[in-house]
Amino acid sequence: MDEIGQKLRDARIQKGYTIDDLQQITKIQKRYLIAIEEGNFDALPGDFYVRAFIKQYADTVGLDGDALLTQFQQDIPEPQPQEYAAQSVENKTRATRAEEASPVNRLRRYLPQIAIAAVVVVAVIVIYVIMLVYQSGPKQTIPTDSESVAVSSKRSTSKTSKSSTSSKTSKTSAASSSSKTAEKSSKKSTKKSSKLDISVADANGATQAVTLQNLPKTGNKLTLGATGATAWISVIVNGSTTWQGSLTSGNSQEVTLPDNVTTFQVRSGNATATTIKLNGQSVDISKGTSIVRTITFTADATESEGSQE
After folding, report:
1. H/E run at residue 306
2. Which region, left, alpha or beta, applies to residue 45 given φ > 0 means left and ψ of -120 to 50 means alpha?
3. What fold is seen in the domain 3-97?
4. In sequence order, which residues have a C-beta less than 8 Å from that of residue 264 and are 6 or more positions away?
5. What is the CATH number that goes with domain 197-308?
6. Residue-wise pLDDT tens digits, 157-212
7. Kind of pairing, strands 207-213 and 293-299?
8. Domain boundaries defined on the chain
9. N or C: which terminus of the chain carries fewer CB neighbours within 10 A?
10. CA 130 – CA 57 distance, rounded (Å)
11. Is 9:1 a contact under the CB 8 Å cutoff?
């Protein structure tokens, strides 16, 4: 092993570096590092690299590279002038710059941007053509014979005026007759729809529901009575008792309901002996067997509003 190689190897071991570690740090190939330690300078690519690699090796392991090169100058081959010039960093930089400045390399560098720009331009052109195709609709043909058009338009105008006059007369008479018919039918339908309709459901235990349709907004009256026995009865509107009392058989009590009432209750202590009438119309509460019963009356709001109109 060469003396300079031995010195570098000892410094590397002292630093705790392996050949692989040194290769990672200096980026010098492992075989060149081994050749330097063994003094086999002929294995390196050239005399210039011998001095350069030795200096880099020495600096990495903590030695003074320049001093080491001076100390072992007689053992290290001197680079030839031509070789130094060819391997010098400046020459390499110039060559690299010249290569990068060539038109081909410039074109290669900007080729991705040029391709993207071309794609964008093509896409814009395609979209523009599609918009033109959709916007251009079928053109209307204009008649060339303007005189015939003018004459026919005059004739059609005169005919249209006559027909419009007659049609207006017929429409007026038809409208008046139809309005009269509609008034008659509406009056008939109003009379039919204004009739109070009472629907009584079967009793569910101590409760029973009554649905009212076409209940007037005002003037509603309940007539309560008892048949065959005495019945205690109360009338509840909006949670408040408006009347309560005991009716003997054959007696009755009339209760006026508040205006705009939509729901109310009649409570009876003897439902089987109780009779109820609403605006003179009987309410059949016989669909049940419970003696004590609460009958809830609910007006259909839609029908009630329609009857008042």
Report:
1. helix 301-308
2. alpha
3. 434 Repressor (Amino-terminal Domain) (1.10.260)
4. 235, 236, 237, 238, 257, 296, 297
5. 2.60.40
6. 445 444 454 555 445 555 556 666 666 665 555 555 578 899 999 999 899 998 98
7. parallel
8. 3-97, 102-134, 197-308
9. C
10. 68
11. yes
